[in-house]
Amino acid sequence: MKRAALVAPVRTAVGRFGGALRDVPAESLAATVVKETVRRSGIDPSRIDDVAMGQSYANSEAPCIGRWAALEAGLPISVAGFQTDRRCGTGLQAIVTAAMMVQTGAADVVLAGGVESMSGIEHYTTGARWGTKSGGLQLFDRLDRGRERSQPEWRFGRISGMIETAENVATRCGITREESDAFAVESHRKATLARESGRFDAEIVAVELTDRKGNVTQFRADEGIRPDTSLETLARLRAVAEGGVVTAGNASQQNDAAAAMLVVAEDRLDELGLEPIGFLDSWAAAGCEPALMGLGPVAAVSKLFARTGAGFADFDLVELNEAFACQVLGVVKEWGFEDLDRLNVNGSGISLGHPVGATGARMATTALHELGRRGGGKALLTMCIGGGQGMAAVVESA
């Protein structure tokens, strides 16, 4: 089977919830990375067969956002597009789906990635179309509602949201508040060092912002990294649940961002004049108990290793999305993985943020650039997924 080559991965900087990217709609963020991937790769846009764009909080402002982003970016009308959703694994799933398309000969070139504008996620009602005989209509916050309804309640009981699942993992795996805070401090330290040393510069494309006076600025630095994070500052934060472990300081952020790359059939690289940065080697997805969704990477990585014969010793980098510090610590404890020097070397969800639909593509982009800086190697990418799933994939430097 053909190998799936990865070309010109880019991302926007990650914006804070309600921050610099608050008024930039998801379709504009997606179009920004689509245009930059095309520009950097030098590909003739007419040779792109499809655009696979992940988005977890989709709506009808930009339906089928892969197609919308292609049109917004000025790609030829002949370029098709579609949308994927696997919650926290969405951006990675878009890349995987694109890889399967080129490996099977269904396409030669697919532009794949993910986007999320969590600042722009709307409130909605399910009762307005047919009206009500009396009383008011309830508005749901799509952010909260998506977390509350991530599994059928009749089967699994009520789960209030992802924080509850994280606390379940902390209890099961014996993870303390102090351990969680220490992990969060380290995440911000790594991300601060990466940003200040310029490690992210090559992968980030600027987003142009125009203020009310018409002044244009460029947003190009991850907004959620807090260099002053310390054990002392985190210790002052109140746990979300009474007596719990999770706080606003040791959990992932809500964010706005986009990331994309070309996924190309290896035998078409020379013809198209494309230089790959790496390849997608393998992947797996697996289910787990929704109440313990944070342990999804344990099941996914186990499935991937069983399928490929790989083990942790085969990887130079391990990228495990930081949904919650206690969740990451629970996963590595279940894995028996002790070499934390290879884990999230440039930070992750706690420091860089977790723009849900974009996160998997952001992780792949950052890992590929980091492998290139190190002269090659392999990275394991994995994340937990709301509703009780995990996803894992292997990328290798070209």
UniProtKB/TrEMBL annotation:
<dbReference type="InterPro" id="IPR002155">
    <property type="entry name" value="Thiolase"/>
</dbReference>
<dbReference type="GO" id="GO:0006635">
    <property type="term" value="P:fatty acid beta-oxidation"/>
</dbReference>
<feature type="active site" description="Proton acceptor">
    <location>
        <position position="354"/>
    </location>
</feature>
<dbReference type="InterPro" id="IPR020616">
    <property type="entry name" value="Thiolase_N"/>
</dbReference>
<protein>
    <recommendedName>
        <fullName>acetyl-CoA C-acyltransferase</fullName>
        <ecNumber>2.3.1.16</ecNumber>
    </recommendedName>
</protein>
<feature type="domain" description="Thiolase C-terminal">
    <location>
        <begin position="275"/>
        <end position="396"/>
    </location>
</feature>
<keyword id="KW-0012">Acyltransferase</keyword>
<dbReference type="GO" id="GO:0003988">
    <property type="term" value="F:acetyl-CoA C-acyltransferase activity"/>
</dbReference>
<dbReference type="InterPro" id="IPR050215">
    <property type="entry name" value="Thiolase-like_sf_Thiolase"/>
</dbReference>
<feature type="domain" description="Thiolase N-terminal">
    <location>
        <begin position="6"/>
        <end position="267"/>
    </location>
</feature>
<dbReference type="InterPro" id="IPR016039">
    <property type="entry name" value="Thiolase-like"/>
</dbReference>
<dbReference type="Pfam" id="PF00108">
    <property type="entry name" value="Thiolase_N"/>
</dbReference>
<dbReference type="GO" id="GO:0005737">
    <property type="term" value="C:cytoplasm"/>
</dbReference>
<dbReference type="InterPro" id="IPR020617">
    <property type="entry name" value="Thiolase_C"/>
</dbReference>
<dbReference type="InterPro" id="IPR020610">
    <property type="entry name" value="Thiolase_AS"/>
</dbReference>
<dbReference type="GO" id="GO:0010124">
    <property type="term" value="P:phenylacetate catabolic process"/>
</dbReference>
<feature type="active site" description="Proton acceptor">
    <location>
        <position position="384"/>
    </location>
</feature>
<feature type="active site" description="Acyl-thioester intermediate">
    <location>
        <position position="88"/>
    </location>
</feature>
<comment type="similarity">
    <text>Belongs to the thiolase-like superfamily. Thiolase family.</text>
</comment>
<dbReference type="Pfam" id="PF02803">
    <property type="entry name" value="Thiolase_C"/>
</dbReference>
<keyword id="KW-0808">Transferase</keyword>
